[in-house]
Amino acid sequence: MDDKKCYLAVDGGNSKTEYRLLNETGAVIAAYRGGATNHETMAGGFSDAAERLVLYASILLDANGYTLSNVADAVLGLAGADYEEQADALTSSLQARGLKSCLVCNDGYLGVMAGVENGVGICYSAGSGVTCGGMNAEGKRAQFGGIGVLSGDIGGGFDIVAFVYRSIYQHLFFGRKFTSLKDGYFTLFDVHSPEAFLASAARIQNEEAAKLLIGLFFTAMETGDELAMLYAAQAASHAADCIIAVSEALLLEPPVRVALSGSILTAVAPASYRRMIEYELLRRKGSVYRLQVNDLAPVEGAVRWVRMRNNLSAYGRASS
Known about the structure:
The protein has 320 residues and is of the alpha/beta class. Helices cover 46% and strands 18% of the residues.
């Protein structure tokens, strides 16, 4: 067993972490899904995140006849690895636990490798949060967004849920503008009074409720709710801010390829919302950007990166 070689590709997020195991030729031979691995949400920070990453990886490895000592290299795109210092700290923690050779970066970069054919371009991702990363032909990387309220991020799932509740709250108790979100919310959660609405806050802090509220938001946007449309326009503007900032930081030459990734943009948001982002870029910069929905999961970007780093040339664009 000790002389066998394998590789790991990992996409670590706020709610789940995807793993792919590659054999010595670069073929994907197994997959595993574990829990959240963002160090920013864990009491023990980098140490806890590394412990969990290695635990999940070991489950996958053990099930397929490998150990950590067999892992020749790994690429891990991790939510929360927003700065070089954070990526370095996570790398050190992983190496101390037996993962000797690895590349750690923000999970947003995986979308570039998965969603842009030559790996040169930008990925704007909206899942539970939002982030935007890009790479140029020289391998330089740049990232904007991804720090939540500190970087003014809007348009991610957490923020949409907060917006829905906040809009209804402000209407009911502060006399702000009526929103159709109220009627939808009251129906979805069987709420019949302002007091019951207040009490419902404890019931919506879970994944299933979040999905319902995000769907409610986009329905309101599509049907012309003024507040929902205003929020969507602000979110599209923030997306454009991030995309343009990455493009200029990397001196990307047009046409600039932009992959749209994350569950909000690939599975929930209607095409009209994606067109809002496209229009905002067109209005500001002209026909510079070419947007497309990423057709591969971000973990497949890690697969592709592992193959490129290790000259596993029998494989091209990542596929499982």
